[in-house]
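Human: I wish I could look at a protein chain and see how it folds. This is the protein in question:
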Amino acid sequence: MSRAETLSVALVQECNHGSAEQNLAAIEARVRAAAAEGARLVLLQELHNGPYFCQHESVDEFDRAEPIPGPSSARLSALAAELGLVLVGSLFERRAAGLYHNTAVVFDSDGRLAGKYRKMHIPDDPGFLEKFYFTPGDLGFEPVDTAVGRLGVLVCWDQWYPEAARLMALAGAELLLYPTAIGWDPRDDDAEKERQRQAWILSQRGHAVANGLPVLSCNRVGFEPSPLAESAGIQFWGSSFVAGPQGELLAEADTSSPTVLLTEIDLRRSENVRRIWPFLRDRRIDAYADLLKRYRD
């Protein structure tokens, strides 16, 4: 069977609805709507089952975690199989007592768990206290083969690191996918907020350009209060987008609305772009040893 030249993709940009059951029900409805529009690949936001709980440190939050396979992955698997599409989700994985990961799961169009990726870069910043919860990933930067192609799946904070995108590209990834949870501190002024949002978009568009690959980035929306009195909470800025292999924006959602962002990706463009911009060819791999150092003192 010859490979399709275009791929219909959908990003589900959602807010927190209050419980895992409510969130999964909303997601299921969105994925069904995407499938009805012809989507063959659907990307969900980071930790889509509930709130972004990492705004504080509490042992009770670990109760949200579940094994993979588990109840949520079974539900996503069944949905992917029923609709005949590839579905990329993001779960709080309980691997063992005291061992938890922020894990992306990839279900193929037959519902099979095609692969998973455990978030490698773990932030520890005001409002994003993830090191308390997540063990750094140990699966490396390995793309996942699916019915729609080889997917380089990374998670949120990974999107600021060009090394992660490059390693996925060097392993043959055909698309880069980033489930994400990022937003503003409401106390920042409008200029600072926009600088942050544009930096986030620019960084990922840069990965598209540097690697000659489409990028799909799905963020959450809505205000989520913090349990900490000194914190103003997070206003998640949405702006989910799809970029082509020259960084061109193919589709972009707004900053506040739950939505299904649909677009078509021309799968031929990466090959054509890499022929005229052969960055992989011209890499000086003999001169990059110092990249393995934390810093050149």
User: Anything to note?
Assistant: The mean pLDDT is 97.
